[in-house]
């Protein structure tokens, strides 16, 4: 890790400001690695999840679903591993009342009631958990993800969208409790985006983890107009019902279409082939094929391309190598920070 260590020495006097936007299981991997490189991190986390423990809590208690927030808090926390293991513990299926619930989700839900909103609850919990950085829910209110499919039909709810078995054409979000109220991000979220050296999108599901954040009008506008370098960390695998047979350029094209203009500056692309028959398709049933490269298409969209072996294979799953991705993000942040100071 000489490259990473070199970066840390260079930025000792100034921590680059990095905003990472998304949700899902890929986000904590990148955040963990960025922590090790002495970055000033703000994680903006989707609040449109309605599945699993998060969805059940959301149905019982009128709070923003806490699952992705919980995982990000753990990724950035300086608390001992024993505490974090308890925070992440999920009750067994035979515990009828608590079955499937993570303790951390229950704590976040409780604090949301105590503080009367999710944003203040997460800030208080961040201090309690000694989080190195900021964790901001994308919205202070529960949001519902809506989708239109290529056949013209529409449906609401992240779980329903991912299990519809159709190709998604576009998504948008609405306020869960008040359809007439325009969803918005709170001021600290917008300020973090405006002041960042780089804004990182992904990895994560294009339509159900990344775009739900960008479809919050003032948040999407902040990303579209920020002076920061906007980086898209392209997924390694395509996803059932979302990005089947997509190239890397197709992913960016969808982002541009949703925000109304070319706004992605740099795309990180994995070029290492996933070995045949390595992926356990039963365990990772949403993953289909490896994303196809289209460097000419990316350049036509105005994107710089950084390609490398970003692959990390374990447990018969396909993941990003967090250290390699974080090193590229830090390097871009340093370059952007230097240009800003000039």
Would you mind describing this structure in some detail?
By secondary structure, the chain is an alpha/beta fold. The protein folds into two domains: 17-24 and 41-46 and 139-342, Rossmann fold (3-Layer(aba) Sandwich), CATH 3.40.50; 49-137, no CATH class. 41% of the residues lie in helices and 20% in strands. The chain is built from 14 helices and 14 strands. The chain has helices at 2-10, 26-35, 52-60, 67-76, 81-88, 103-115, 118-128, 158-162, 187-195, 206-214, 217-225, 248-259, 295-300, 322-341; strands at residues 17-22, 40-45, 134-137, 143-149, 154-156, 168-175, 198-201, 229-233, 237-239, 266-270, 287-290, 304-308, 311-314, 317-320. The strands form four sheets. A seven-stranded parallel β-sheet has the order 3-2-1-7-8-10-12, with helices on both faces. Strands 5-4-6 form a three-stranded antiparallel β-sheet. β1, α2 (26-35) and β2 form a beta-alpha-beta unit. α6 crosses α7 (118-128). The radius of gyration is 19 Å and the shape is globular.
